[in-house]
Design brief:
Shape: elongated
Strand content: over 45%
Distance between the termini: 57 Å
Number of strands: 10
Structural class: mainly beta
Number of helices: 1
Order of helices and strands: HEEEEEEEEEE
Radius of gyration: 22 Å
């Protein structure tokens, strides 16, 4: 956490030292691509281990209704995987793998504030409807030696607020950084056995997996020729 926060503060300090230029106006359009990836591994002892991996990407198009307010839509993909081994006793251990893959449809708005002509801060509000597949694999080692696989359809609905920064590389290209998120999250798993599991929660995430770096391209509104 401290390492990630330090990087972000360093980037902000660096950006503020460049010559400032660039503006947004009503009628501009924004094409944006975001990427996020994190991988972590925890081995508490020689008999147990856990690995987490998450990859996400999304493409968005937004329309400036005012110089500092954007409304738009998007499409994204999310893959999350958790795997590891749990120790049961000296003769048995459980290997597990949980994989969640969803396609996400977005409606979003963005309130922006000009810190300087080349730097903006913003808060995005994302309404996300996700659909996908979930697979759960369990394997018991030892004398029992059983293995099971469970499949489910995933429905995910959420509303998230995400703060971030926009840095204008030039008149057309912008780098974006999102960090942290808070909001409402609901996930429903419908298994092949007709079993249904629901999870509703209020999320406040300030972990490194909430960090997304993106690149955006502006389609500028053409100026009308004066007669």
């Amino acid at each position: 956490m401290k390492y990630t926060t330090g990087i972000i503060l360093f980037v902000i300090a660096l950006l503020l030292q460049f010559k400032l230029h660039g503006q947004t106006k009503k009628g501009d359009r924004l094409l944006q691509m975001n990427f996020g990836y994190i991988s972590s591994q925890d081995d508490p002892n020689v008999l147990e281990k856990e690995k987490l991996e998450s990859f996400s990407t999304n493409a968005r198009m937004g329309f400036y209704l005012t110089p500092n307010f954007v409304l738009g839509f998007g499409l994204g993909y999310l893959r999350e995987e958790e795997s590891g081994r749990d120790y049961i006793d000296q003769n048995n251990s459980l290997d597990y793998n949980f994989e969640d893959k969803t396609v996400n449809y977005y409606l979003f708005f963005s309130f922006q504030r000009q810190l300087s002509p080349k730097l903006k801060t913003f808060i995005n509000g994302d309404l996300n409807l996700g659909r996908g597949d979930y697979t759960e694999r369990l394997s018991l080692s030892g004398p029992i030696g059983a293995a099971e696989t469970y499949n489910a359809e995933v429905s995910r609905n959420e509303f998230m607020l995400r703060p971030g920064l926009m840095y204008f590389l030039n008149h057309r290209w912008v780098m974006t950084i999102n960090y942290a998120q808070i909001g409402l999250h609901r996930t429903v798993y419908r298994f092949e056995s007709s079993e249904k599991t629901e999870n509703e929660e209020i999320r406040a995430n300030f972990n490194p997996d909430s960090l997304h770096i993106g690149l955006a391209f502006f389609i500028r509104k053409k100026k009308k020729d004066k007669k």
